[in-house]
């Protein structure tokens, strides 16, 4: 029976890894559909290349920083327990690779390719696992201190803060250092609209992400015995809540409608195992509204050219999700009131979330500032005008001219 359990756990987490891996196709098509046509190829190549670099960074460096586990032993030893430890790495690597996939949407259309791959290696190898180790592996005694001080540790079941807020706040640092696309804002204060190039592809990306998210959340239990239908239904309700409020506040705009469910799902990750379904619906609904309002403010009033709105979507909705656990995770509002770190505490949620933001923004700013100073992170004006597809990859998504042979 023990051997059956181990093999079933290995299969369970492997299926989760495959579902989250598939989400990277969602990231790619969401970006492809949002950017202008001259940058579509770049969106596709970036996400796949970032995934490859992330795997290397996390395998050789990041996983060891977060969990103290390395794979420099014989394959026979690695294959023990049906290779469960390996597929667990695979699952957590797909989370880590979401960091550059998130950032990619913010810096689209004007970032240089190779320097971004360098940033990916540093972020996934060092910045992300530093906070991951604190939140999910008890590093530096911070979880113990929170538990002693506030009666409970910081609870983030599936990564509202660890993955999404961290990715979103790193993205904000990158966008601020990169600057706006040429012609986006003029000296008179007018804004040039850059509408999505393909609503169908944008919608496809959102759907792929939405479906994969149920692996992202449910399989975060990491063992078959820990699986909970509550996580699945809370994810569904938050997705619905985000969709409805984004539809309403976004005045039927398809970009907002398809990002609404993603906002809800970002926010519910942290508390999907402790919320009541009605609480999850409210958390998702607030997230959908937060995205619409903050995306509009960011782009139009503050003139921060975050192309896909990764800071409002992942940064702010992830922040809300982390804090919301301290509200809707309590028994008073129908939650379970318990977590892996002993109960739920609003102050612990606030402190853990703020720590994640500080590490993400500080680490992201440091990485991109360093690369900007050493090699530069931005395409020149002519390259940007021609588009990243022709400037970097020497081909467009839909070549108009074909050779005659």
Helix content bin:
55-70%
What's the total number of strands?
Answer: 0
The radius of gyration computed from the alpha-carbon positions, rounded to a whole number of angstroms, is 21 Å
Compute the average pLDDT: 94
Individual helix count: 16
Main beta sheet: none
Structural notes for this entry:
This protein is mostly helical. Helices cover 69% and strands 0% of the residues. Helix 13 packs antiparallel against helix 14. The longest helix has 33 residues. It is globular and about 65 Å long. The chain starts with a helix and ends in a 12-residue tail after the last helix.
Key structural traits:
0% strand, 69% helix, mainly alpha, 16 helices, 405 residues
Secondary structure layout plus pairing:
Elements: H1 2-34, H2 40-67, H3 75-78, H4 84-96, H5 98-106, H6 113-137, H7 142-150, H8 160-178, H9 199-218, H10 229-249, H11 254-268, H12 277-301, H13 310-328, H14 346-374, H15 381-386, H16 388-393
Helix pairs in contact: 1-2, 1-4, 1-5, 1-9, 2-4, 2-5, 2-6, 5-8, 6-8, 6-14, 8-13, 8-14, 9-10, 9-11, 10-11, 10-12, 11-12, 11-13, 12-13, 13-14
Quick structural summary:
69% of the residues lie in helices and 0% in strands. It has helices at residues 2-34, 40-67, 75-78, 84-96, 98-106, 113-137, 142-150, 160-178, 199-218, 229-249, 254-268, 277-301, 310-328, 346-374, 381-386, 388-393.
């Amino acid at each position: 029976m023990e051997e059956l359990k181990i093999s079933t756990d290995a299969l369970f987490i492997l299926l989760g890894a495959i579902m989250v891996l598939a989400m990277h196709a969602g990231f790619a098509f969401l970006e492809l559909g949002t950017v202008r046509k001259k940058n579509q190829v770049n969106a596709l190549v970036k996400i796949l290349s970032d995934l490859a670099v992330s795997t290397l960074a996390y395998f050789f460096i990041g996983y060891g920083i977060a969990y103290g586990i390395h794979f420099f032993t014989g394959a026979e030893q690695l294959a023990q327990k049906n290779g469960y430890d390996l597929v667990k790495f695979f699952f957590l690597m797909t989370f880590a690779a979401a960091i550059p996939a998130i950032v990619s949407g913010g810096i689209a259309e004007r970032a240089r390719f190779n320097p971004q791959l360098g940033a990916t290696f540093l972020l996934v190898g060092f910045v992300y696992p530093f906070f991951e180790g604190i939140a999910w592996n008890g590093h530096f005694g911070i979880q113990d201190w929170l538990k002693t001080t506030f009666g409970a540790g910081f609870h983030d079941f599936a990564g509202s803060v660890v993955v999404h807020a961290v990715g979103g706040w790193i993205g904000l640092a990158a966008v601020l250092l990169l600057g706006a696309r040429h012609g986006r804002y003029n000296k008179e204060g007018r804004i040039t609209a850059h509408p999505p190039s393909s609503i169908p592809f944008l919608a496809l990306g959102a759907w792929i992400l939405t479906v994969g998210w149920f692996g992202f959340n449910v399989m975060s239990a990491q063992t078959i015995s820990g699986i909970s239908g509550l996580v699945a239904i809370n994810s569904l309700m938050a997705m619905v809540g985000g969709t409805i409020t984004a539809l309403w506040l976004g005045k039927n705009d398809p970009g907002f409608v398809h990002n609404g469910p993603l906002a809800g799902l970002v926010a519910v990750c942290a508390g999907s195992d402790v919320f009541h379904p009605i609480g999850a619906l409210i958390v998702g609904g607030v997230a959908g509204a937060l995205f619409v309002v903050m995306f509009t403010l960011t782009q139009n009033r503050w003139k921060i050219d975050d192309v896909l709105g990764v800071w409002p979507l992942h940064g702010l909705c992830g922040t809300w999700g982390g804090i919301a656990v301290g509200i809707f995770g309590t028994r008073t509002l129908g939650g379970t009131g318990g977590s892996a770190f002993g109960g739920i505490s609003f102050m612990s949620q606030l402190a853990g979330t703020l720590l994640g933001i500080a590490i993400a923004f500080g680490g992201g700013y440091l990485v991109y500032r360093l690369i900007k100073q050493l090699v530069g992170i931005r395409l020149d004006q002519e390259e940007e005008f021609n588009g990243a597809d022709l400037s970097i990859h020497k081909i467009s998504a839909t070549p108009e001219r074909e050779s005659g042979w």
